Structures
1.
Amino acid sequence: MKLEHSVSEPAVSANTSLRGAIARLARGASIETSTRNIADVAGYAQLLAPGTDVHVTFLPGTPYHHVLSTATRLRQVGLNPVPHLAARRFASAAAVADFAARLRDEAGVGRVLLIAGDSETAAGPFESSLQVLETGVFEACGIRSIGIAGYPEGHGRIPQRVLDDALERKIRYAESSGIELFVVSQFCFDGQLVVDWATRLRERGVTLPIRVGVAGPASVRTLLAYAVRCGIGASMKALGSRPVSLTRLVAHHGPEQLARTIAPRAAELGISGLHLFAFGNFDESAHWITDVAAGRFALDERDGGIVLHQRAGARS
């Protein structure tokens, strides 16, 4: 019995360390909502810890004052709004300045996610997020925490060398302007792809904090549809590792395996947390964050992921 106990101690210690690393990823997590869900924001405070970063997406055709209204409501219920600012959606530099100032004054925003936006043509003078950053609009209005996009699988329409050059220019500008950059990656299904991408960034000397984009719990059918729409490629294999059947298509899939894969190297690679794309299922994604952050899960040795403890009334 004594020998058996001593042999099991390293395994117990390793499991405890891994569980702690996975929980830390959830405690540092952010999540997305949409202006379409503003009526639901009042309930978000019961789902998430106070001060949680909640991103507000800037969908095509959405007036920016709708993003502002949603951000203001999030602040009122005790959450931290992180509005998306899509460069190609703005008709002028004055419109960007107005949006940024109102975010600060009306919603207490100190952090935004700056993206180019997926519009085919620009509505105004900005083709890229870098062009907006270089206007100085954020430091002028006191918004100094700026998220930028990262692409573990590359970008379908932008060559890697162009992405690399833009990232280096953003970092140089931020360092000279007192801006604190962080990276939010496009969602991915394969944890090893994320680890390899983050490793390459570190090898290039990029030390920005990273939030790894993951798909929140959803049916495999839904995840496949969003993956195709967003140009996710190689990591889709992680969804298709088993034969596809109707039962499996409607079954729910979450970021359990990915979280377990990246957790052991998260601190080393500067991965500060996850970023959940809720895909219309905010409540379940929020529950995933709070359950994992609280350690309400077990390690699953069958598929290399984790299994969340069943909540009363939860989906089976």
Note: The two ends are 38 Å apart (CA to CA).
2.
Amino acid sequence: MPRESIAELVSDLERYGERSAFIFRRGYRSVRWTYAEVARIARQFSVELESRDVRHGDRVILLGENCAEWVAAFLGCALHGAVAVPLDRGSAPDFVARIVEQVRPTLAVCAGESSALVGSLPVIYLEELRSLVARNSSSVTTVAPSRDDTLEIIFTSGTTAEPKGVVISHGNVLANLEPLEREIAKYSRYATLVHPLRFLSLLPLSHVFGQFLAIFVPQALGATVVFQDSLNPSEVIGTIRRQKVNVCIAVPHILTSLKNYIEREYQNRGRLDDFRNGLRKTEGRHFAVRWWKFRHIHSKFGWRFWAFISGGSALDEVDERFWSQLAFAVIQGYGLTETTSLVSVNHPFKRSKRSIGKTLPGRELKLADDGEILVRGENVANRYWQNGAMQAAAEADGWFPTGDLGALDAEGNLYFKGRKKNVIVTRAGMNVHPEDLERALRMQPGVRDAVVVGLPIGGNAEPCAVLLLQPGYGAGPAVQAANQTLAEFQRITHYFAWPENDFPRTPTQKPLIGIIDKYARSHGGEAASGGVDSVLAQLAHTDPSNPTSELNLNSMEKVELMAALESHYQVDLSEVAFSEANTVQDLEKIVRGSESQPAVHVYPSWPKRWPFPWIRALAYWALAYPATLLLGKPRVAGTEHLHDVSGPLLLVCNHVTIVDIAYVLSALPPAMRTRVAPAMQGEMLAAMRNPEDSKPWWRRTIDKIEYMLITALFNVFPLPQKSAVLKSFAFAGENIDAGYSVLVFPEGRRTQDGQLSQFQTGVGMLAARLRVPVVPMRIDGLFEAAKSQKLFVRPNQIIVRIGDPIRYPESDDPAAIAHDLERRVREL
């Protein structure tokens, strides 16, 4: 029996109970929500809306990162009959302001960092939603919405001065979901062979395609959805492998970035030609032959990963062929916001090359005389929201003109042939309206007129500005200044000055776009500034529009900036080169010349897998602990501070000698001693793991054995001083997630005079973002013993002091946290 509304899906979620529904990162930790939790908190949020007098049909803004709280709020709105208005995190402030003015929302649910964008609206912070609604009952008594009621209003990216939102009903979504569920049911008997299924979603939930492939389709399979904000290729691959992901959902641009990353790795090793020859030789061969030939790439992604789902814009034929030749499935779909995402989709086991699939049941598709794709069915939205009110969509006999050109073969497979309407769809799947960009350009000094066209790139396009300039003015500065006023996804990537005194025009003086577009395609235009200014504007204390402006950043701020740039441009940057950058211009050069960096530091997970925890426990209690007592039994002060502490901790201690770890472990409760991951100087571990060739063979062998032993028996991980700091912090979070306490020595080096040195800012970032109690510790008496070169010292001469555990909010300044921890350790 057909569902009446999306609200009924909440009950469907509950049948999966404690199965993981969503995994996402917060700080350096992974957070997991079960299906039961999502359903319960959605119901509690619905009650919260009732208590705040949010009525049926009232609008609620959703603005923030992909997370389980976002999903619960969205479903809670559906239960209550409220209308969700999802907004992209990258939306420009004036765009958000216009949306708020248009829809007159009653409430905003947003991330703390985005709360300023919604003005004086009442706000519920995503990070606090779970604890806020915990007091509410999970019994919903409000009247459930109907199939015709509005579920959400989506304002497509890049809309012009008067935004127009697509009004999507509960029935629109169900019309797309129900045929997919029927198809999935045919394969349900095979589900146990591949469970647990895991999807990695790299699409924003503010877009209907992202919603469909994260909130609706995976749930029909009882799958787990992993959210990730970073689009850095190495991090995406690392997450796929670490989380045992089966399917990655992404826009075509991400598949291109991953392809480039793999090819750069081969280029760095001098094997790119061999790799490409291998691709050519295996073309057309059986899937198993291709899989075996490129098994090392499958190993990099993890053995469970097998498919990409690509949507939002057209996938370049070259990229599709690349991944198919590597024996990965590439599933494409076609749809628009107005069609509630999907119109057609490839069958994962019956694909036709370069096709965007067959029309889904329950909808009709035909081609107009000029090849435009027309769609009809319950999935098609028939209303818009504009000028503060609902408006009916103008349709001819119910057929929706998509503005896209297509072709159909004899089997009914649809092929994308290009765009008809005046909108630029970028490789990132974002809609950019040229009018918005032209308006920004015309406001710049020296710009007489401007036309923006789409420069074709891999089946999609990027904005290219064609400018009429006054004498003495340049196109580059005008484009750079205009980009500062645009949202990130709208940034102009190419430009040039029109070579004549005026554009060719119609009798009514409108520019002849066709002639200008043809000229732009043949000339390409200059590449606009690398655009680090857009990221710098958020994170740097400098003038991002001035290439020679100095970067006023400390070391940790540079680390954060580098992470933001890597994610934004989907590249791997050299931390050594980045640490030496002093100006905006330096950063531009680093981003443009980025290449994947060879892995220097390794973060092994095998010491936490059986049988190593057992071996480590046996070695500690049989060897390490008796040796500690023999060499100098320590006195422990402050053990009472750990009596009521459960779960993993961040242990912060002064650094005296190479045996500090043994004395810290001996001071901890017995059950905790073999569940600790100590951080060790990364450069030292790397030198042991890969000793220099100049050393004798026997010395290199001993170094490698020492590396294996110290890693296996003490579970150490690298914390380098010069590079890969972010990877180390993320790995610390993985240890915490696995139930291991993390031990760090924040001075960064052993003491030279027995005095405490200044703590590095990195410990502040760890303390805030690991979201666990931080325990300050100090070792006294060990420096004097080491200085006297005594092998044995009297019992209790060495003292290990333990302080009160403390929690730091994630919003606290890392430098202030480091200073506070230094003070606490000093005062123990």
Note: The chain has a mean pLDDT of 86.
3.
Amino acid sequence: MTVATHSASAGVRPSRWDDGQARFYAETIESSDYVERLAPLLGPRWDDFLDVGAGSGALGGRLANAGSRWQAVEPQPAMQALLEQQRPFLAARGVTLALHPCTWQELPAPVSAGQLLAANLGATHHEAGEFFDAMTGRWQDAMHWVVAAQAGPSTFCLAGFLPPELHGADTRPAFERTLEQLGPTRAPDDIRFTDWQCRFAFADLHAAQMHFLDRLAFARDTARAVEVCRFVARHASLTTAGVDISCTKRSAVMTWRAR
């Protein structure tokens, strides 16, 4: 049996999710306390906001005030479908949802709002400067970014469940890279932090093990893969319904306000 020679971070799949990965992320957010922890840091509900990388709309839906206008930018088809499912419930509250099925680079020039939200968007820690400049003029009151801040991997949802010697990813908090890319002239007016538990319930132990091997792109017959499977078997929480996997995350909420 040979040991895998590539690092875990090199093998992690790109951020352009397929439908299955998108639905997994949405289910993870739904079963975690992410929204409950983040929403209070973003202040009172909003009347008019642009949600860039809206995902399934879990956080945006919580922030939408009765009678508000919610503009959701989301290029992923499975996420778009989850957003569309919310329309009847939003309509009952008088919330108008305008879905822009495009990337932030393709967003039409006139689109703007009072508040701008970008939560867990790859651009905020991979292309922070470019994204900041592109959003200039698209918000009037405040802009808020939610960026990973745990001293651990941000490569995929449950990566932090594994120890560094198994996931092999960069453990430097992503928000530090964001601040470096922005520089002092584009620094946020304030940064607040909250911890939350990322959770997912797998049908059984095998499904949980295969999830990690798939996300790390490890061949099944390598020594590294065997180590990962053994770790998951030792540390997963067995329940009557299946297997629960969880890890602690921290998010930074960066806010810019109109001068």
Note: The domain at 16-154+169-198+250-257 is CATH 3.40.50.150 (Rossmann fold).
4.
Amino acid sequence: MKRFGSFILIIFIYLFAFTEAFIFYRWLPNGNLIVNVIIADLIATVIIWVIGSIFKNASVYDPYWSVAPLVMVWPFVSEFDAKNFLILFVIGLWGLRLTFNWVLSFDGIRSQDWRYTQYQTKFPKLWPLVNLFGIHLMPTIIVLGVMIPAFLGLQSENPLNVFGIIAACISLIGIGLEHFADRQSRRFRLSNPGKVNDSGLWKYSRHPNYLGEITMWWGIYFIMLAIDPSKYLFFIGPLANTLLFVFISIPLMEGRQIKNKPDYEAYRAKTSMLLLLPIREEKEPAENSEKI
């Protein structure tokens, strides 16, 4: 009941944040639609930050990554043609899957992600600012960056073409990769606590779930690019998302793994960081067999 009650509380928190952001959005002047959605999204993020601070738990923000895109797309939908349906389907499938994955791992309103606790311990005096700008606003801006190509694709009057369908398949491959990676990881943790997962997709990549997330958003960018090549400069969003995983998420995760699992270094030495590649064979020491 404690977990269920916390889940209901999270739902009410998000309904409140999105309702307040929507009210503010309606008050904004009729200017650039993307700018207005960005402002409303930032307001909702700050509201989540305030409520999370009241509960002393930055993880109140955790489902925002997957829930906010499901809300933000609708102002850009004027009709349900094949192009719009495809973009909505891909983003909807991604958001629902990732949100469901969060539900499975949700432990309650008092449970905070270990990474946030680590920052809180390391920067106690700066924690409110680190929490607002690093844990809340930075991911929100990254999500906005990867969503802008979707906004532009939905706004475009150009029809769907074969290259857009191929790009959508790239996103679907990314979603499938995330799904199977998360499923395999969950099963392995339950049956092999404390051990290094080197089975399934994790045999060929140390972070196949992150690879799937990165692939998903590059696919969205390529859908937009296929529909309107003139908007090619908006690759910055998916690129920033890729860099976030490579230079922040992966180092943090691997530092924890190395600290808690002695066998992780050996796994790391033979397994690709991100791409699905064959395992690297360990080099045997050279033997001096020459005889004089």
Note: Residues 288-292 have pLDDT under 50 and may be disordered.
